[in-house]
Amino acid sequence: MSDAREAAGSPTRARFGLRTRLVLAFLLVAAVSAGTTATLTYREARNAILEQTQNTAVSSFRDQVANLAVGLPVDGAHLQRELRRIAGRGKPRAWYVFAEYGSVRVSSTSSPVSTVITPELRRAAHADPRGSFQRVVKGGDPYLTIAVPAVFATGHSYQSSGLTLYAVMPLNDEEANVRAMVTAARDGAVPGLAVALVPALLSARSVLRPVRELREAARSMGRGRLDTRIQAKGSDELADLARTFNESAGALERSVDELQRAESRARRFAADVSHELRTPLAGMLAVTELLDEDAGSLDRDTAAAVRLISVETGRLAVLVEDLMEISRFDARAAELHLDEVDIAETIRKTLHSRRWSDPADVVADLPDAIRARVDPRRFDVIVANLVGNALRHGAAPVTVRVSARTPGTGPAVLVMEVADSGPGISKEAMPHLFDRFYKADAARTRSEGSGLGLAITLENVRLHGGTVRAANAAGGGAVFTVELPLTTEGATS
């Protein structure tokens, strides 16, 4: 149930657990690697394709221009024929050739000028007698444009003739090849990622197996199985973690065993001491009762000493009984002897036997006709400890209220409240009220209580299958609330 609630309450963690993150990381690395490789390959292949085409075209066009036989001044008709001849010999494919000479514009096409040729290319051609080239995209189509001026040799130098030829070659075929490469790279990446998923899952499984084993081992130890160990395989970090877990578990098991043995010895010692003290205490109590009866005939100092011995012996007897009761709870030997009783009548008997019948001290709000199955002796201890604690540490009057409540779901419960008129419980003392030997006022090393009353109350309430809690009332004073099922089936602590 706890696992189901945990999974249902954490959908994000379920969707993006360690396995998912490992697989995604593996696929991300594979995708980045494939993308980087594809990008570098695409760039290098694209440059190689375009440069090969460009070098071939530029070299061939320069040779054609160098062999051009045109007289000056230029004859337009003759020049057009030469341009068409050059265009037909274009490499690696046919060109569109244009010529500019002063105001004369001639081409191998029906249009004498080209919108693809840029002013930058014209300036570069006039500056360099070897000519220049440029890749241009026009209307979404790529072109290679080449400009070569026609020159003639004069000794050891070249003289411009004023005639410049331009070649325009579409690069659609090269771009189609590049796009085909991109498509092939993209189509190949998807199967590559699918193939990468297999080692990703295998790697995630190999990593998560020891993690799952560690989780199960931790849960097993949490359930009290301190002998749980993990089989450590290999020499990697996960194997080191498994060995560290085993070492820690072994040390914890040894420590817990030693603590349990020490606790068992302490409980046995307390039980043995309490048991051994009962017999001499019984004799001491009998003697002090006789001395109390004769104290009136003694002198004042002797009578005071006798009464002090009697009081302290009584306190010692209470402490011994409390220690024996706690020992029975610790040994899980405490038992319930249930009987159906009238709760109001049972509480009145408790108050009367402790001589708490004065309304100035204790006010009882006890409606009749509330019956419950409880252990009368243990219920008497619960009431007596709570009322006695309220009188000692709170202030009179102390109010005892009883009611029966039926929650919206579940069985009916008996509710008993014991409220005092004192200053309430301090924030520091609240978490420790039911601890053994705890006293809210550390300065009071001696008091009427043993420090075990509320701890015994808690154990008795638990034995009945109920709960007890403490709080401060809104108008002041402390309130202890006990809730017991009205149909207790009986239990053994």
Structure description:
The protein has 493 residues and is an alpha+beta fold. The protein has three domains: 16-221, no CATH class; 226-332, Signal transduction histidine kinase, dimerisation/phosphotransfer (DHp) domain (Helix Hairpins), CATH 1.10.287; 339-485, Heat Shock Protein 90 (2-Layer Sandwich). It is 54% helix and 17% strand. The protein contains eleven helices and twelve strands. The protein has helices spanning 2-9, 11-15, 18-66, 76-88, 119-127, 172-222, 237-294, 300-330, 343-353, 376-393, 453-463, and strands at 96-101, 104-107, 132-138, 141-154, 157-170, 339-342, 362-365, 371-374, 398-405, 413-419, 467-472, 478-485. The strands form three sheets. A five-stranded antiparallel β-sheet has the order 2-1-5-4-3, sandwiched between helices. Strand 3 (132-138) and strand 4 form a beta hairpin. Helix 8 packs parallel to helix 11, helix 9 (343-353) crosses helix 10 and helix 10 runs antiparallel to helix 11 (453-463). The longest helix is centred in the middle third of the chain and has 58 residues, at 237-294. The two termini are 26 Å apart. The model is unreliable at 1-14 and 488-493 (pLDDT under 50).
Please outline what is shown here.
The chain is α+β, with helices and mostly antiparallel strands and about 500 residues long. It has helices at about 1-10, 10-15, 20-65, 75-90, 120-125, 170-220, 235-295, 300-330, 345-355, 375-395, 455-465, and strands at about 95-100, 105, 130-140, 140-155, 155-170, 340, 360-365, 370-375, 400-405, 415-420, 465-470, 480-485. A hairpin with a 2-residue loop joins strand 3 and strand 4 (about 140-155).
